[in-house]
Design brief:
The protein has seven helices and four strands; from the N terminus they run βαβαβααβααα. By secondary structure, it is mostly helical. It has a domain at about 60-195. The chain has a two-stranded parallel ribbon with strand order 1-2. The protein has a two-stranded antiparallel sheet with strand order 3-4. α1 (about 10-25) links the parallel β1 (about 1-5) and β2 (about 30). GO terms for molecular function: glycosyltransferase activity.
């Protein structure tokens, strides 16, 4: 478990969570403090801080939650469910409405630095000339280990996060969804944007 604490939380709350980290070997507290709001600003950064903190631990899937979310399945139940997933991510993905994926957002994968580092020659040129395929969904997602490693090792998501942070609301609901359905990015465990349809895909994260 990894927690990122709101900058506006009380000093007592900070102290209590850091005390929890000292007591339990499987609890981590992000050392970077962010200021959160109901529009989703800095949620993606906080999750990435936590994922970076636990990369050297042994795990196969990471569940990203927020605020008052709690797990209603046991660890054993989740393990059995995710075995069936077989490396697929669990991400609600639907078409992105115009008020979320606005025209002013940068879409070019080359400019967004989202072309995987392992691409060479014509494949890299093709990726740099391609556009991101927008997706939208709940920010609660389950990412495979391969997807998390890929996000840190092959692409740079921060230019895209910066673009989204300039929006007014729901800025945390397009990142993983868009990575998930853009074939040129090649996120492990993702699927093609043609599969997202006009309605929600089925998912269990929330």
């Amino acid at each position: 478990f990894c927690f990122s604490i709101d900058k506006n939380a009380s000093q007592l709350f900070h102290e209590q969570l850091f005390a929890l980290e000292k007591c339990l070997p499987n609890v981590f507290i992000s050392k970077t403090v962010h200021e959160f709001d109901s529009a989703g600003h800095n949620q993606n950064e906080a999750h990435l801080d936590c994922l970076r903190s636990v990369r050297n631990r042994k795990w196969e899937y990471a569940m990203l939650l927020q605020s008052l979310d709690v797990m209603i399945k046991t660890h054993y139940q989740m393990t059995e469910i995710l075995k069936i997933y077989g490396g697929a991510n669990d991400i609600q993905t639907q078409l992105c409405p115009d008020d979320r994926c606005i025209d002013s957002l940068e879409t070019n994968l080359g400019k967004l630095r989202l072309c995987p580092k392992n691409l060479k020659g014509e494949e890299m040129d093709k990726c740099k000339a391609s556009s991101i395929k927008w997706g939208k969904g709940s920010m609660q997602v389950i990412l495979s280990r391969a997807a998390v490693d890929y996000i840190f090792d092959q692409i740079d998501v921060f230019p895209l996060i910066k673009e989204m942070n300039d929006m007014g609301y729901g800025v945390d609901e397009q990142l993983y969804q868009s990575l998930h359905v853009t074939p040129e990015i090649g996120l492990p465990g993702g699927f093609h944007y043609k599969c997202r349809g006009n309605r929600d895909n089925q998912y269990i994260s929330r």
